[in-house]
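Sanity check

After download, print the first record. It should look like this:
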Amino acid sequence: MFSLSELAPLNQHQGRCKLLKPWWEVFMDYLVVLMLMVSVLACTEQLSRDRVVCIPMDPVTSANTSNNGPSTCGQALTPSSRPPTHVPHNVSPKLPSVGQGRRTHLAHQQYVYISQVCYHEALPLCSRFFPYMAMLQSLVLVASGSFWLHFPHTSARIEHFLAILAKCCESPWTSQALSHAARQDSIQEKEVVSVVEERRPPQPSLPSASSSQPVTLARRTSRDSGTDSPLLERSGGASFGCPPSPCPSTLSCNSALSSTSRGSQVPFPSSSHVMDDRPRQVMSLGKSDGEQARALFERVRKFRSHSESSDVIYKVYLAQTVLKLLMVTLILSYSIPLLSSLSFTHTCHPQETDLVGYDTFECIHVLSSLLRKLLMAYLSLLGLYGILNLYTFSWILHSSLRQYSFHSLKDLGSLRDVPDLRNDLAFLLHMLDQYDPLLAQRLSVFMSPVSESRLLGESLERRWGEEKLRAMTSVDAEGFSRLQLVALPRLPPALFTLSQLQVLQLELIADARFTEQVSKMTSLRELHLYHCTAAVDPGALRVLQEHLEVLHLTFTQASEIPGWVLSLRSLHQLHLSGRLSSDGGLGRGWALGSLRQLRHLRVLVIRGMLQRIPGELCEVAGSLARLEIYNEGARLLVLTGLKRMVGLTELLLQDCRLERLPSALLALGNLRTLDLQHNNLRTLEELLGLAHLRRLSCLRLAYNRVLALPASVGVLRGLELLDLSNNQLQSLPPALFTLRCLRRLLVAGNLLEELPAEVKALQLLTELDLSGNRLDSLPPQLFSSCLELHILNVARNSLSSLPRGISALGRLCRLDLRSNSLEELPAELGCCTGLHRGGLLVEDWLFLSLPTQVRDMLSRSYAPSGTPSEDHSRPDSDSFPYFCPTQWSFSSALESQI
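Expected structure tokens:
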């Protein structure tokens, strides 16, 4: 047994499927029901009253037709051959008369027997099985009539379509969008009419004609704009249409008034102007309605991509139509000839002479007349059913059911962008149009990019207002106001009202567009686009060309680089991060000379995979001062493009798998900083060629595979910083200590076993990093001569003691002695006043070996476990990096969360 709750979904499904049934499908359903009723009536009559009645035929007639018939037997059995019976005269006349006719002398059982035998032998098959065949055929037609709605491969898609259609019709956004579309079309139509009227020269006309003209024009405008549609009247027609006047004389009054005004040359405001002056009522969606509408847009988009990939529903419907047409043709072909076999009388030869004494019987079929009429009615209904199937088949062949275009919506200005559909979704909409075209119109609202754009705009205005954006704005370490927006569908309109914003970071925004309102952001100087392909309107581009100075672009492919980037003539810094093409360009769109407009570009940072220096960079060689290339481990093969960039002062080539110093560096006479970290340099014999770089003051060669430092390093007389950390150096040449200008020497992470005494020549040295080596002692000359030393890092060595004289380093503010073999610390550390602010990094137990007075002086700002206290006055260094929490920055918000 089924419960009512289980049967309720079936009824709902049947009700919703009616939307996809055109008028001929509904008509055929009724015809099938009538055919089924006719067949059931025939079956009921046949089961209850169907029989034949038989009587033996005259033997004389049989003898005339048969040569072997006994006359004696016939005469004995024939009532007419018997002598007449004498009727006595004394019989009362009131007695019933003796029946006239032939006597058969057959018992009742013999009649029943003969009737049953003749029913099966003399009665044709049509008379016996037509009702059952008709009912079976009707059941088959009933099943085939809605097969396409219940086929497993189509029913799920159809149910999904009907569910989406129901949501689209119930959504408040549907009525609002159609209302807005009709309102916009009405306004545009009125503007066109007003322009035509202004251009039309004044012509004298009769008052009656002039008075009727505005009325006719108003009526045509309402009709052309589509406001007479019942759906639009319900959705929003009341907000922009004038209510009709109930007074029949309104038309004549308006005409008289118009003629009077024209005659007096006094302008009278028309109805269109009055309507434009009225405040327009705009309905805004609630938060829940907006979220449901956005989810419905996504649901429609997914269903469209799924249903347009195949045409299984169309094929099943076509096969069903062909099958029904063939079935009707077959049924009619063998049923029409059966009409002649439905006879009332039948002659039966049962071959049962020994039992009944007769060999021929005359039989009548009781239901023959009724069955004939029912068969004719059934065939008439079936013929009409076949005609409808033939019409359906011709409609399928002559209509492009796998292509659907919203022709009726092309007149709606706000819905002209509704895309054309194909395959199953197009077929379903064609079927839906046969029921009610307005339903497809409501569904089209959620297929329109313009409608979705308006919805997202309203949602952004509601959720991302100016107050919320101002609350999200922060101030970085450099004092710039910064705002970061992540994973929004588009830019909030309130963003362009932030006139004090200086740095804007946009990450994973699908449809970012800068409009002319960006001119209100007068303080904007820096823009970050992280996987965000932004579009810029012409008016906004002029503003960005004048104000934007720093641009960061993070992308996946080089083709994602916007073309408007190359026209930012005021740009000073350009940062590109992504997979760049390996053909030597920054992308397929970066042709020769495309960088000429960036005539103020000073800094260019490229994070990608290049095989050679792009030739396009030579176009900005006159202004470019700093070039940074992070090649992500790809080999940079050709560096000849550097020879023409003679204005470079800073060059950074990291992760380029360089094995030697590039010869192109010799042409960079103005170079001040050279950074070749994270490469595969093994030898530095080419350092002698760098003698021409007289302005070179910073050389970073950390994280390479350098085995030995050549004596030619002494030619770099102006060097102030030398970073050789994390190499494989075992000793330092004496020529290194001839660099009198050297201020920072970083040799951490090598294999040094001793520090030469010649280090005393570096009297300007302020930072020395010897951590991660194999030193077991330090030369006393380091403390007696290098009096400018501020930072000394000897962590992770094998020092067993510190030499005396460390108190001479009065400017020492950081000293790292962790992970050594020290057993005690000299008390002279108390004389280093710079260490009093937490600059001593040492284990806790070793710190306790100092005298109490010295510990008190050093522990004023001392933090346990060797962690210095936060002091913003401490100098920065590579060995002791200091980052204030407000200075922490990440490339994206997602990375910061990780």
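If your output differs, re-run the checksum step. Summary of this record's structure: The longest strand covers residues 550-557.
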